[in-house]
Amino acid sequence: MSNTMEAPVKVAPLRKKMRGLRAYPLGLIGLLTLLVLAGFCFLGPYLYPTDQTYVNLVDAALPPSGEHRLGTDANGFDTLGRLMKGGQVSLQIGLLAAITATVVGTLYGTIAGLARGVLDGAMMRLVDIFLSVPFLFVVLILSARFTASTVSLGLIIGAFSWLVPSRLVRGEVLSLRVREFVLAARVMGASRPRLILRHLIPNALGVIIVNITFQVADAILIVATLGFLGFGLSYPATDWGGQLSGGATYISDGYWWLVYPVGGCIIATVLALNLLGDALREVFGRQNS
Amino acid sequence: MILDSDAAQKADTLGSPHREDPDLLAIRDLSIEIRSGDRIVRPVSNVSLRLRRGETLGVVGESGSGKSMTGLAIMGMLPAGGIVTSGSITMDGKELIGMPESDYRAVRGNDIAMVFQDSLSALNPTRRIGDQVAEPILLHLGGSKRAARQRAEEVLALVGLPRPSEKMNDYPHQLSGGMRQRVMIAMALACEPRVVIADEPTTALDATIQAQILDLLNDLKSQLGMAMILVSHDIGVIAGHADRVAVMYSGRVAETGLTPTLFGDMRHRYTQSLLASIPTITHDKADELFSIPGSPPDLAMPQVGCPFAPRCAAATDLCHEAAPGLTLEAAGHSYSCWHPATGPSAPMRSRIATATATIAGPEATPRLSVRNLVREYPVGGSTLFGGRKTVKAVSGVSFDVAAGETFGLVGESGCGKSSLGRMIVALDRPSSGEVLLAGDSVTRMGSRELGRRRAELQMMFQDPLASLNPRMRIETILREPLDIQNIDTRGQRAIRVRHLLDQVGLPAGVMERYPHELSGGQRQRVGLARALALNPLVLVADEPVSALDVSVRSQVLNLMRRTQHELGLSSVVISHDLAVVRYLADRVGVMYLGKLVEVGTCDEVYSTPAHPYTAGLLAAVADTDPLAADRENGTAVRGDLPSAITPPSGCRFRTRCSQASELCAVVEPPLESISGTHQVACHFPLVPKQIASPTTT
Lengths: 289, 697
Prior knowledge:
By secondary structure, chain A is mostly helical. Chain A contains 11 helices and no strands. Chain A has one domain (24-42, 71-284): MetI-like fold (Orthogonal Bundle).
């Protein structure tokens, strides 16, 4: 056959797409920022151990110094150490919520798109109903009734965030299901689960991955909002939103180190995720066409 | 004698006094590069072409041969990243390359106009066609809006748009494809350009409409005294309508010459191979089509030697090392080949015994049987009080396919042939009627039994890239049918996959690859291998080669013909291409608007068509047969396909039939035998009923 046959290129399409990211410097900056932030939150405590359990009112609200690089807060906790601890929680909840939302949304959307007809109509109207519920109130009520933990908050946020991915995935499946390779699988006698898992979801993966980045960013903002409103995690656990709310109380006293670092972290994380998502969308969009 | 292109040019114009330039448009040594990122593609290298006043120059080549890019360069409309690296394009002695954009705008549409391929995307969907045709007139000739509209109406009448004053106010989507193409031509002609570039003007159209449009272009050209560059991948279109032809391959001109010379006495090996690899409706079925091995070269790679050398049977070391210069054979006939051919190659006798007509006579049950199949699709929302509109895609079709037989289904787009194919493989359920597989009704099977029996009914799809899951390796794709049907053990499946690849002539190395890493021909081989994996009884092939490049088609056609014979498959081959069906099928059914109008053996239908529609289709195709002796089209099909929502009463073809009478509007003609194997649905068949046609063997 042709001589191009000799050197087989063994690059999976997905990995190739990740390589395509190189052409988007902003996306790369986003990815690096995220890696640095994750390293800071999860590895930082080993390099910079601090006591985040016991209140130490003697050292309350100290400005940055050699001992406390970013000062201390009103309870005497080291701010830099607290930033790491809060960041762990924020990132964990964000990731958990995004994964929950994506898994549920993808399955829901695929089933609806594949079924079409009455079932599809009913499933999507349910999504419309959920989308019209003022989500923040429900979460506030729920978190007032249940003690919030990392897992429960992640699941609650996830349970309200799957609606957008389900719509996206359904749209993708509607166009994929009439593609010839799906018809070919049906001609072979492939079952519905097989169609969904082997043919539809792998090909909708581009849309799904891009959406995950935005989901994580949204979830982190929601956690921050909840924390800021005082419905976040219970003391002494904390997250970036809770820290920000604590710091904001003292903003008129000039305790800048309680506000700007944590605010900066939230902005940096969300911005980085959005940059990465945009770049991924470009990569997938370009290679699919 | 070997000359460079400049010398060739001089030699050709010798004899004309004062070296007066007889060319309206001259392209000399044109090279184009397209840069995207760090990739540089060279779609055109050292192309020289000339267009004389009043002539039609046909430019023929496969996708990626540089033919369209040359046309765009003349218009000064290269895509982003595209630049002319060397060479010149002159019109009436005026250099176009490097001309300021503002000056170029005055040339475009005024001196040189272009007719595009896809009339639906090339026309603005939000504007009335009258305004769109008037636009270039306003831009180039000025004058009042009213005068421009008046001129637009004149041009629309000229291109044969019925009732132009009414149609002026229509939007593009309200017109049929053929009518839209006429509007496109009207736009191009509005300013009476001196050169028209028609880039694949009929590729998106059906055979009968294509013939109408090509004739129109020809008439207008002589009427208005224009010169035309006709760009097409379809050798037939070029052969039927060009005075001179340039064959392009891999960004270079392989051969140029007068049309009869080029097709009757070609020199370049590529021209020779290409012509031998195309099935025609007059092709002797005992001859195998010539297959050009491999696929066209990657234009991003530097080219050394003759670009066709890797695929050429006559290639020697010289061909791989040095690019051949231009050789001048006779006035106007030149080629670039080290080992020129002397005319068309001799036909190759097929190794396959052609005596396939041994279809067992009194066999009890046919392998596949289609009984009164009807499929109607609802359109639009249901109206409140019933009366829902439906598209009658398939309206009562019946035929049988015996074991080992290949049945061809031909017809134009919208005739229902693909809907029929889908129902046969149970991808779609008929509204009524049934499909019998070896006597068992597929239509009435429960989902569990159907799941199992699907193995016996396989399908080969049109677009080989779309029909292979882009996220699976070839090995997984070929193993999937075995996995689904749970056939063999794991180890045996791996062996079977290797065997399948071998069967379709692919190396084992492709197993690790993804579909996008293969060429179009290789992908379609994978498509065939997958369809064969389950040892089906019936294979339905829907337009199996129409997405492939011309030089790759014959590879797949030969492969299909061989496997059909080796495996004793029963197949249904669906195609709009009469020649493809003739090459593959034993018997053929002609469809028109959801109905079979004629059924018979290939010989009967192609040599003595009994239905006026079949005759018209054949005439439209014969018109574009590069080797056809006469180009009459007295039986041409007029007009457009009627709507399938409200098909005509009686005979559905009567609105376009030259023989239609009142009877045809009232009584629908049934499918009746005119000989043992030949049936036709017509009140006035071209072959008298009950008299066997003499050519039947």
